[in-house]
């Protein structure tokens, strides 16, 4: 991907219309799932984003043939000839997809080698749960230099797994392992994010036998084979909340379409609590705005159905404009507050503390991380003369909203990080009044 910068003139309430793309956190996973079938799968609503392109490259390296119409979001994945056990990927530093492909290649070829998963500015990409699950299903896994290498001497065998934490990625790996394993698997303490439920729906349409029982438990009867399917990708709940935050923070009004309201779960009550307003216009269209003067609040991130960790950065930019002191307690990732330093440079008043300020059990309690943030408001934001470098996807969206709030012109460099998950924002935001110039080099 080329180097991309955004120049944004701030200080104006944002009004207009934005259409959500297909969910990033679902798209890449269903692309991988398509390789479980030894024929063709058609995906509808595939977003034109960097992560989808990276995943397509990974799947092609294993022998898949992919035809992608970016105009209408249709992708055809032909997994008939998966014949390369060593998948390659030039850019896997912040992409967790390679570890998911291990399970697929073990089913298809009995052996697999994929790039190691790196880390980014929000913390280490821990794959221990994935590796442990693969071993319990009967395969061997070793890490050598920059690769994970796995092999199985026979068909994978079903097992019982109790995940230490309801990790989304680990739940996905267990699903991929169990659907074609011999016997019945029971997987406990699974993630229940909407993207997981959608993935289960896709796997069922391919012929998988998956029961979702109470208390975060899956019962999976392994089958001999899976068939290709046609699957429509739901709208992106993280993106929708981002544009809701932009509307509220800037005291504007944005109609967001392409998103089912039920996917926004606990975002909406938190949004209402701080005086954000919304109105349902249709079954997949919502108008977001600000009702009254913004009020401070307390937010704790958590696994679904809790407040999503990817919602907290754009939500924090709203809270810079709220009256009083707001508290955010991050329980999912260990390094999620780095973006606040840039907001402070723009005029915000925030501080991070090592205390866990809340009641939700913190995944990293007792470890030397900044667990909570205090946000004092309201504050006036002002553009700074030097460019701001975007470190990761979600921080980048927080910077964009802050740049809209700031008086003057702000330049955001490394904006390709945003486009990994949101696509070309100059094109996406063309039906709003945002003053954004996209520069590509």
From TrEMBL:
Q: Return the InterPro entries for the record.
A: Enolpyruvate_Tfrase_dom, Enolpyruvate_Tfrase_sf, MurA_subfamily, RNA3'P_cycl/enolpyr_Trfase_a/b, UDP_GlcNAc_COvinyl_MurA
CDD domains xrefs: UdpNAET
Localisation = Cytoplasm
- On whether Cell division is a keyword of this UniProt record, the answer is yes
What's the chief localization of this chain?
cytoplasm
Task: Report the pathway entry.
Answer: Cell wall biogenesis; peptidoglycan biosynthesis
Output the PANTHER family linked to this UniProt entry. UDP-N-ACETYLGLUCOSAMINE 1-CARBOXYVINYLTRANSFERASE
Ranges where the Enolpyruvate transferase domain occurs? 9-429
Name by which UniProt lists this protein: UDP-N-acetylglucosamine 1-carboxyvinyltransferase
Q: Does the keyword Plastid apply?
A: no
EC number(s) given by UniProt: 2.5.1.7
Which UniProt keywords are given for this protein, alphabetically ordered? Cell cycle, Cell division, Cell shape, Cell wall biogenesis/degradation, Cytoplasm, Peptidoglycan synthesis, Transferase
Family membership noted in the UniProt record: Belongs to the EPSP synthase family. MurA subfamily.
Residues annotated as transmembrane: none
Catalytic activity from the UniProt record: phosphoenolpyruvate + UDP-N-acetyl-alpha-D-glucosamine = UDP-N-acetyl-3-O-(1-carboxyvinyl)-alpha-D-glucosamine + phosphate
Question: What superkingdom does the record give?
Answer: Bacteria
The record ties this protein, via Gene3D superfamilies, to: Enolpyruvate transferase domain (3.65.10.10)
Task: Fetch the SUPFAM superfamilies from UniProt.
Answer: EPT/RTPC-like
């Amino acid at each position: 991907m080329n180097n991309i910068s955004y120049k944004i003139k701030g200080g104006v309430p944002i009004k207009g219309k934005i259409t959500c793309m297909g969910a990033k956190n679902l798209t890449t996973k269903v692309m991988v799932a398509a390789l479980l079938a030894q024929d063709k799968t058609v995906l509808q609503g595939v977003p034109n984003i960097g992560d989808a392109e990276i995943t397509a490259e990974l799947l092609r390296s294993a022998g898949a043939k992919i035809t992608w119409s970016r105009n209408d979001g249709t992708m055809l994945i032909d997994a008939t000839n998966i014949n390369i056990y060593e998948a390659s990927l030039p850019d896997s530093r912040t992409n967790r997809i390679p570890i998911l492909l291990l399970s697929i290649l073990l089913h298809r070829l009995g052996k697999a080698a994929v790039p190691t998963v790196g880390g980014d500015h929000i913390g280490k990409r821990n794959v221990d749960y994935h590796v442990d699950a693969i071993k319990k299903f009967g395969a061997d896994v070793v890490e050598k230099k920059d690769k994970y290498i796995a092999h199985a001497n026979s068909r994978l065998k079903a097992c019982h797994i109790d995940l230490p934490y309801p990790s989304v990625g680990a739940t996905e790996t267990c699903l991929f392992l169990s659907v074609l394993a011999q016997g019945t698997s029971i997987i406990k303490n699974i993630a229940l994010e909407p993207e997981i439920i959608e993935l289960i729906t896709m796997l069922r349409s391919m012929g998988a036998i998956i029961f979702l029982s109470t208390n975060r438990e899956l019962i999976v009867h392994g089958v001999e084979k899976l068939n290709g399917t046609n699957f429509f990708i739901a709208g992106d709940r993280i993106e929708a909340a981002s544009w809701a935050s932009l509307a509220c923070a800037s005291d504007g009004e944005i109609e967001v379409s392409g998103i089912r309201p039920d996917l926004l779960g606990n975002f909406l009550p938190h949004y209402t609590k701080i005086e954000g307003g919304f109105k349902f216009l249709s079954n997949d269209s919502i108008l977001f705005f600000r009702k009254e003067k913004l009020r401070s609040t307390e937010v704790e991130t958590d696994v679904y159905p809790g407040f999503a960790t990817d919602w907290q950065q754009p939500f924090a930019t709203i809270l810079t404009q709220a009256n009083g002191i707001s508290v955010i307690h991050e329980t999912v990732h260990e390094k999620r507050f780095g973006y606040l330093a840039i907001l402070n440079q723009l005029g915000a008043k925030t501080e991070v503390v090592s205390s866990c300020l809340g009641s939700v059990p913190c995944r990293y309690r007792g470890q030397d991380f900044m667990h909570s943030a205090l946000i004092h408001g309201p504050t006036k934001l002002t553009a700074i003369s030097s460019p701001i470098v975007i470190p990761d996807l979600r921080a980048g969206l927080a910077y964009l909203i802050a740049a809209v709030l700031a008086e003057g012109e702000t330049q955001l460099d490394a904006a390709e990080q945003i486009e990994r998950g949101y696509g070309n924002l100059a094109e996406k935001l063309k039906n709003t009044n945002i003053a954004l110039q996209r520069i590509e080099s």
